[in-house]
Each structure stands twice: as structure tokens, then as C-alpha cells.
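REQUEST FORM: STRUCTURE PREDICTION
Request ID: SP-0412
Submitted by: Lab K.M.
Chain count: 1
Length (residues): 382
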Amino acid sequence: MPHLLEEYAKNLGVKISKPIVKEHFFPIGFEKYITVCPDQTNNSRNYKHYPVVFFILKQFLEKHGIKVIQLGGAAKIDGVDAALNLPFKQQAYVISKSLLNLGCDGETAHVSSLKKRPTVTLFGNTFAAINKPMFCRSSLMVNLEPKWNKKPSFSNVSDDINNILPETVAQSIIKLLKIENCKVNFKTIRAGAVYADKIVEVVPTTFYNLSLQPNQELFIRADYGINKDAFVKYCQNYKVSIFSKALLKPDFIKGLAPNINNIFLRVKKEDDIIPDSYFKIIKNMNINLILLAERKKDINYLRNIYFDAILQEYRPENKDSLKIKNNYKILTAKRLISEGKEYLSEAHWEKNLDNNNKMLDGEKSLSEIELFYIYEQSQKNN
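STATUS: Completed
RESULT:
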């Protein structure tokens, strides 16, 4: 398919020429750096695996003293050294001084090629041939698109861009930098749907001051253990949702209600029936009460008893046929905090495996599989 620029030139009856972009100085602060230009507002251009790319490249970049500068985007990407929201002319200046530019197809990719910077461009809803950078030689460019099962959608709601593997992106960066000839030793096994969601859970047995993002919700795992004083302090200091195996007495949580968004109550068939009055009291506190069925076989019974309540399965059955190998590891934005230690999952917490990113086999670990980016990696490091 012809490039968009060629189509415009043909239809307008003009010749293609290089644009002129005037740069405005900006004090960068780093001697050697690459730039990443995310588009977090357009789903078809919102590449969610940038943090994995920089995780793969971490040792390589540190070894060669290369920093990562993010240009644009509402949220800072994990793994970047600085995030700047700059006008276009200052973005052009920063890109012109970079070792390489990474991002989706668009104006920053074209500016990068115009400034003859090595450029890795990601395409999610169109063929690369249609909008690839045109103003530098091909040896300075890598254009990546998904393996299309069908034609691109050309839609802004497509998420096909996330089918581009982060190890492919990382290897392309290493290739274009031409600093060291090395191979990425990372292989994607499975990307969970919400592995990048920043979830913080805490077991309220001891209180710790936690650093959360603005407006971030804290999940209190009172179902794992509870100390009343610690529980109260968490509810007083953070916006929370609570997991519990027992009814929380209304008098106990009444003063805490403004900070409580949800109560997730784990229930079984043999439990005492929750009176209607309890649902009304919790609702009057403006708290959502969600029942979580511990066992799938109890769901029909529980729905008959609590037909007006929200009822969900606590651990949805994992239908993924993935067989866990001993060398599989995980990346996840979830953190479970207990007694000052951080764990990546309930299974890690139960086994007291903090500072451990091994993918554990078993029902509990698999029930959280959508929270995990599963990969394998050899012992050799870049």
C-alpha cells in the first residue's frame, strides 16, 4: 500500500519535500539517553508493554550509562529516568540530541527520522508501510507491527499494538544503538490482561505508612489476618476496599465509612444467613457490599438466598491450559504487603516468598494469572 505522504502529494499535485521543524532549547541533564514517546489517550497507539521493554533493557542501559526520557503521556512509565511534558518544539530538541527514539507512529517518529536519529516505531491499527518515517535511511529505522491475523482495523479502539512482543522491541533498540552485539534473553510466555494495573494490598496486622499514587485505592486483606488498631489506621489514612471472611460490625466501621468504598465478603453455603437489615445498614453508609462465593458449587444456592445482592465467584476457574514450568518468572504491578515485606501474590505470601518472582504452580497462583506477565529467561545476562 502507498504511504500516506505519497497519497497526499498525488492528490494535491505537489512534490514531497522535507519539512522544517524549528527546535527550542531545553536543558536535558543527561549526557546519553534514549526517548520514549507514548500515546496513552488512543487505545490503538497505547503500547502497554513499555515497562517490560525497559525491564529487559535495564542491565544493558545501566552498563552503557544510557538514561530513558519519556516525552508526553499522563502517567510515568516504570523504568524511565525522567518524564517531561514539553511543547512540540522542545520535544523536537530533546529527540534531536537522543541516541534513539521509541514510540508509536506519529509526529515524534517523523521528527526523529527528520533529525536522522535511530527510530523504533510501533504500529497497531495500520500497516507500517502506510505511515512509517520517511526522512532517513532505512538502516536507521525499525518499524514493528503485529502479526496480522486479518487486515488492520484502522480503528482507534483496537489493541493489536500490544501483540508486539517487548523482547522484539528491546532487541530492535539494541540493534539500532550499535553499541554492543548481544541477544535479549527474554521470552514472553503469557501476558495477563491486568498485569500492569497498580494494585496494593495489605494484611492489617501491623500499620505501615504506604506510598500510594494520588487517588489510588488500598485493598485491606482482613481475610488474611487482622489487628483492630492497624485496621482502623489504614481506614483512617487511605481510601480502601476491604476483603473479609466475617461480618464487620456496623458500629465498628461507622466512623470509618467515608473512606470505605467496598466490602468484599467471602461466603460459603454453611455460613449463617446474613440478615437483610445488615445489607441496608451498609448501603446507608454508602458502602458497596459484594459477596464472594468461596466455592463454585455454592453459587446457585447463594443466589437464591441473596437474590438482591451482588454475588461473584471468589476465585474464578482458570480455563487457561498453560502448564507451569520451573523456570517461569512473573512481572506484576501488584504488591501484597505484610509485616513490612512485599509479595507478588497470595501464593507467594502463603509460602513467605518475598523478593521472589518465580511463577508458582497451584490453584491459588493460577487464579491470579491475569495479574501476571509470565516469561522465561536464561541465566545469561546482557
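NOTES: Residues 196 and 333 are 5 Å apart (CA to CA).
Reviewed by: T.R.
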